[in-house]
Amino acid sequence: MKKIVLLLLLAILPAFAAWGPEAPYESHWREQQFDYRAEELGSDSLQRISVPKTIAVASITAASYGAAYFLVFKKGWWDEEGNSFHFENDFDYAMNVDKLGHFSSGVLMGEFFYEGYHWAGISEFNSYLFAGTSAMLTHVAIDVKDGFSPEWGFSIFDVLAGSLGGFYPMAKRYVPWFKYIDLKWSYWINSDVYYENTDTGVFTDDYPNHTYWCSFKIYRMLPYGARKYYPEWLALAAGLSIDDVIFHRGMGKHPKGGSYEVYLALDYDLEAFHPHKWWSRKLVTALNYIKWPAPTIQVYPDVKFFLTYPIKF
C-alpha cells in the first residue's frame, strides 16, 4: 500500500506545474528561454560522422570495459570457476536496492555513450537512442557472464533496471514529465560492515552506504506568479537506502535481517545556474547526478536529523 501511494504522489506532483498562467515566452512544454541539455540550435544539420572520431570512441569504450573488468568485475564477481548457464532473479539480495544500483550504472553508461556518439557526428536524437541501446547491450553482456557464475546468474530484472537507466538521459531530454525531477546518488562510508563481512570489497556493492534519491524541482512546479518567492536552486529530495544489518552474515541474502531507510532532504538544483558554455553544461549534467551534503531527516525506521547527510556525525 505504501508503494502504491508513493507512486501516485510521484505521478501527481508534476501536475502542479500546470497551475497558473503560461509564461509569455512558452509556446509548448519546453521552456524555450533555456534548456541546458539541448544542443546548439541547428547543430544537428551540421553533424557529419567522422571515422577517426568513431574509432576513438570505440577505443575509449574498449579501454573502459577492460578497466572495469580488471578493477571491478574480475575481483568482485568473476574470479571463480565457471558453471553452466543459468538464470537467477536475486530478489533476496540487498533488499532489491541493487536494482537501483543497476539503474544508476545504466544512466552513467547512457551519458557516456551519448557524448561519444554525438562527438563522433551522429545526430542528437540518434545519439541518445544509440546510447540507451548500448547501455542495454552492455548489461546483457554482463549478465550473460553472470549466468555462467556459480555464485550469481542471469537476472532479467537486473538487465531491465540497467536498460531503463540507459534511456534515462534520453527521457530527460525529450519527455516533459522529467523536467520536474532529477535522479541522484550519494555514497559515504559510514559503516564498515560490508567490507568486514565480504571477500570482494567492491564499493559498488556496498549498498548500506549508498543512497538513491528522487529530487523534485520545486521552483518549476510552482505557478509562474509564485516563482519569484522561491529560490530557483532549492529542491527537495526523497532518498532510499538500507541499514548494514543485512551484511552482518555475508553477502546480503538475508531479507529478514535488515531494514529500509527513508530520508527527506534539502537539495541543490545545479541547472538553476543556467550554464550556457558547452563545457559548463556537461559539467552540470555530471554534477547534478550527485546528491551533495545537505540537511536531512531520516523518517524511517527511526526519526533522525543529519546536518550534512550522507556524512553522519
What would your notes on this structure say?
This protein has 313 residues and is α+β, with helices and mostly antiparallel strands. The protein folds into two domains: 50-174, no CATH class; 179-313, no CATH class. 39% of the residues lie in helices and 14% in strands. The chain has nine helices and six strands. The chain has a six-stranded antiparallel beta sheet. The longest helix has 28 residues, at 51-78. The model is unreliable at 1-33 (pLDDT under 50).
Strand content: 5-15%
How much helix, percentage-wise, in residues?
25-40%
Q: C-alpha Rg, in Å?
A: 21 Å
- Report on the biggest sheet: 6 strands, antiparallel
Mean of all residue-level pLDDT scores:
80
Q: Count of helical segments?
A: 9
Order of the strands making up the biggest sheet: 1-2-3-4-5-6
Kindly report how far apart the N and C termini lie: 34 Å
Order of helices and strands: HHHHHHEHEHEEHEE
Strand pairing plus helix content: what structural class? Answer: alpha+beta
State the low-pLDDT regions, or none.
1-33
* Total discrete domains: 2
Total beta strands: 6
Per-chain topology:
Blueprint: H1 2-12, H2 51-78, H3 97-119, H4 124-147, H5 156-166, H6 168-174, E1 181-187, H7 193-197, E2 210-216, H8 218-221, E3 234-242, E4 260-268, H9 278-287, E5 294-300, E6 304-309
Antiparallel strand pairs: 1-2, 2-3, 3-4, 4-5, 5-6
Helix pairs in contact: 2-3, 3-4, 3-5, 4-5
